[in-house]
Amino acid sequence: MGRYLQREYEQPHGDVNRIYDRPVFNTRIKMSHKPMRYPIVSIVSACLIVCTASLSVAEQPQTADVVRPVIDDQAPGWRSLTESDFTAVNSADETWSWVDGTLHCTGKPVSVLRTTKPLKNFELVVEWMHEKPAGNSGVFVWTTPESIEKLTREGKPGLPSGVEVQVLDHGYTDRVKAQGQATDWFGTNGDVFPVGVKMTPFPPLSPNGQRSFPRKHLAKGHGQWNQYYIRAINGEVRLWVNGEEVSGGTDIEPAAGYLCLESEGSPIQFRKLRIRELP
Questions:
Q1: Burial annotation 102-141 (CB, 10 A radius, 16+ → b, else e)
Q2: Burial class (CB in 10 A: 0-12, 13-18, 19+), 214
Q3: In what order do the strands lie in the sheet with 192-195?
Q4: Which is the CATH superfamily of the domain at 79-278?
């Protein structure tokens, strides 16, 4: 009688089935009992490859998500700045106008709009947009009452003393360059500098050392909205542009005064003015 050779195999779905070949007559299957031998060099090489791969994975730097602070102007203590919070200084009647919560400025004459009361420590969020290329404006922090009184009394174009947070369109650089003048003394991404007051600017600095130049260039051009978050606390002013801190200064004297918005030759809009006064 012949003997059947039995084989097993596994189907793709995991079922193990047995199949039988055709009869194999007078066939002997000789099994070898000799142990299988592998070259030592091959084994060592395989181990080295595995170990090297493990080390390479372990040595790769672990990338962590960047965590940034959230500026939540809806938190307790924040409030909106509206038309009733401001008063004219040396502007024309038509320079400033409120339309559906947005403050419009014609840019003429060169002048400021101030808060009705002085401020000391505070946080401010404001969005702004230049309507035309090369627009120029600014936010004045801790403006001195003496300079405000002088501008109001004289009623002439001019700007007060205080810490200016520059609001400048990128096209301003091209305009100055076209006039054959130097452009290395100012920036268009959020300079902070003193006007008639004392301040130690944070680096990087302008060539004359008076301005704090932004560490990053994050401002958008005319026709687009930008957000400034300004923190003025205990003689120190810091500026965030579109969510990232870029510039500022310390050792400011005086460290209290009016908050002013600047009109300086070009139409600009301000909106979402929010403030939180601090102790």
A1: ebbbbbbebbbbbbeebbbbbbbbbbbbbbeebbbbbbbb
A2: buried
A3: 86-88, 111-115, 258-263, 136-143, 162-168, 192-195
A4: Exo-inulinase; domain 1 (2.60.120.560)
Place of tokens 């070898």: 32
Three-state DSSP state, 176: helix
What digits encode the pLDDT tens for the residues 130-189?
Answer: 999 999 999 999 999 999 999 999 999 999 999 999 999 999 999 999 999 999 999 999
Which tops the pLDDT comparison, 37 or 100? 100
Measured CA to CA in angstroms, residue 20 lies from 5, 23, 27, 31 at distances of 6, 8, 15, 20
Q: Model's pTM, two decimal places?
A: 0.77
Q: CA torsion 112→115→121→126, rounded to 10°?
A: -70
One-letter amino acid for residue 19 of the chain: I
Q: CA–CA separation, 199 vs 252, rounded Å?
A: 4
On the 0-12 / 13-18 / 19+ scale of CB atoms within 10 A, 184 is exposed
Numbered ranges of CATH 2.60.120.560 in the chain: 79-278
